[in-house]
Design a protein that fits this description.
By secondary structure, the protein is α+β, with helices and mostly antiparallel strands. The protein has six helices and eight strands, in the order H-H-E-E-E-H-E-E-E-E-H-E-H-H. Among the domains are: 62 residues, Double Stranded RNA Binding Domain, CATH 3.30.160.20; 67 residues, 2-Layer Sandwich (Ribosomal Protein S5, domain 2).
Length: 205
C-alpha cells in the first residue's frame, strides 16, 4: 500500500507560520495595572497636609429621627446636633436636617463652623461660677482644681470638650432636651469674664 509523502504546500509569500498565542502563567500580569495610569489615589489627594490650619474637634451630640406617614408607608428624615471647637476657647453649635444620617451630620457640622464664638478660659478651667440659661435648660458651671477632670455628661460634656475645658464641675438643673442643654452651656461660657476684663470695665466707668 503506497503512502503519499508529498510535503504540504508552503504559504504564499514565504511568511512564517504565526506561533500559537501563549497564555500567561498563573500569577503573571498581562499588562500594566490600571491603577498606574490613574495616578495617585483619591484618598491621598483629599488629605490635608500636616500643619495646614488648626485641627478641629467635631462631636455629634444627638441624632433625631422623624417619621412622616404617607400613602406608600413611612418616610424618615434625620436631624443632627453637632458641636465644633478648636480646644482653645473657640466653639460653635450647629443643627442640620436631611433624609440620610451622614448628610444631616455634614449639615450640622457645617452650620457649627459658621457660628463659631470665643469664650474666656483660665488655663484648663473657667474663671468663676456661672449659670447658663436657654429656653428650659439651666446649666451651672463651677471651676475646679487641676486633676479634678471634666465632671459633666451628655451635651454639656461635648461643649466643654470642644471648648478645651478639662477641669470643671457642672450640674444640669432644667430641661433635659439636648438642644436646650447645649445652648444653655454655651450661654454660660459666653458670660465668663477674666479679672483683667472686669478691671478695664471698672476703670472705663
Amino acid at each position: 500500500m503506497s503512502t503519499d509523502s508529498t510535503p504540504a504546500p508552503a504559504p504564499e509569500g514565504n511568511e512564517p507560520t504565526p506561533a500559537p498565542e501563549q497564555r500567561p502563567e498563573r500569577g503573571e500580569r498581562r499588562g500594566p495595572r490600571r491603577d498606574d495610569r490613574r495616578g495617585p489615589r483619591r484618598d491621598n489627594r483629599d488629605q490635608k497636609p500636616e500643619g495646614d490650619g488648626p485641627s478641629m474637634i467635631e462631636k455629634v451630640v444627638f441624632i433625631n429621627r422623624c417619621a412622616k406617614v404617607v400613602k406608600g408607608g413611612r418616610r424618615f428624615s434625620f436631624a443632627a446636633l453637632a458641636v465644633v471647637g478648636d480646644g482653645k476657647g473657640r466653639l460653635g453649635i450647629g443643627y442640620g436636617k436631611a433624609n440620610e444620617v451622614p448628610d444631616a451630620i455634614k449639615k450640622g457640622t457645617a452650620n457649627a463652623h459658621k457660628h463659631m464664638v470665643n469664650v474666656k478660659l483660665k488655663g484648663d478651667t473657667i474663671p468663676h461660677d456661672v449659670l447658663g440659661e436657654y429656653d428650659g435648660g439651666k446649666v451651672l458651671l463651677k471651676p475646679a482644681s487641676p486633676g479634678t477632670g471634666l465632671i459633666a455628661g451628655g451635651g454639656v460634656r461635648a461643649v466643654l470638650e470642644a471648648a478645651g475645658v478639662k477641669n470643671v464641675l457642672t450640674k444640669s438643673m432644667g430641661s433635659k432636651n439636648h438642644i436646650a442643654v447645649v445652648h444653655a452651656t454655651l450661654e454660660g461660657l459666653r458670660k465668663l469674664r477674666l479679672a483683667d476684663d472686669i478691671t478695664k470695665i471698672r476703670a472705663a466707668s
